[in-house]
Request: fold
Amino acid sequence: MKLNAFLLRSTLVAALGGLLFGFDTAVISGTTEWLKREFALTEFKLGFTVSSALIGTILGSLLVGRPADRFGRRSVLFVLSWLFLASALGCALAWNWAAFLTFRFLGGLAVGGASVVSPMYIAEISPASARGRLVAITQFNIVLGILLAYLSNYTIGLLHLGETECRWMFGVMAAPSLLFFLLLFAVPQSPRWLIARGRDGEAREVLARCGTDSGDVEGEVRAIRESLDLEHHSLEEPFLCRKYLKPILLAIAIAAFNQLSGINALIYYTAYIFKLAGAGAESALLQSVIIGFTNLVFTMAALTVIDRFGRRRLMLIGSIGYIVSLSAATWAFYTGVGGSLLLASLLVFIASHAFGQGAVIWVFISEVFPNRVRARGQALGSFTHWIMAAAISWTFPMIAAQAGWMAFGFYALCCVGQLLWVLFVMPETKGISLEEIQRKMGIE
Reply:
């Protein structure tokens, strides 16, 4: 179906949460040496400092589900925009290590919340035929945010601002955070959330403006109401139960494999990795920009085909690319070759991630749970993703300082596990309504 302007505008605004998510995640990659010097950090403390945001992210992703159900997806996005703003200004002005950790933690809460609510909101306003590419706009904005963080860091680095340089790197995120808050006034509440709250009239208006595959708004309202089936099920019913075991296991698996690839080690420590391989400071920041640009290009490519190729095919291509590229990076570190081989292997790795896991994860998790528990399901998937990210990000600098090849070799082995999971377990969800996916999962 042809996308209408209101649907596209609402999607783009919600996906700004993804852009801030990406920027906040990657901006620290250019500041690790400054952090060590400014706050006298050991390798262990550096890992903890980078992971401090992830601790907030874990809590944010875990706790945001119930507020999203109670107050609505749009209302929670407003709160997240203010957390992003507070984090940007606080990190820029941090007067000691404890203050910096506190404001990075607040940013982590916002990232965790955005990773749940932005894709869930977009999935709930989107017709099935366009849902994959619309939810994938969140991932596009995440990688755009990552690229903007790398470009911002590189540009600020060229200005040679001295000791305030890295403070500016953190502070620039305040502008898009404020823009996100203002633009949210122009988007509606989720129609599925409105129906769950008995506000069918408002839901009809939103569905009419966003569009449906059949053009039958009344039929869509009936299907959503039937999937909620609130006469026999409550929005407060237990989530961790046998009935929802299949989608729970699918969400946990895809989220865990996402981080076991080592993607966040690369995102958080891009410049650090290239310095370990012998690159200078400016060269490392520039190579970070190349990594970010590759990520963006292949995310755009995946976004154009995800609803045609399907989720499984993208995951298969990405898994094979993961294994080849991580094996090459392992060899580059083991032999000490580094240089062009390391850059080439990491470019293939980030391209494989962008075209596979990166494009699919938030789409897939937003699809596999029934309407009545989607917020909690999305929260569980995000929680799994971020707790694994914290473990990977905290341990990477300590492992890499001893032997970089061991870290990349472990990630390659984990990606073999992902390939087997995709081949034998992962279902296809393209082009199927959220309510029909629920029936295919055998959930009444």
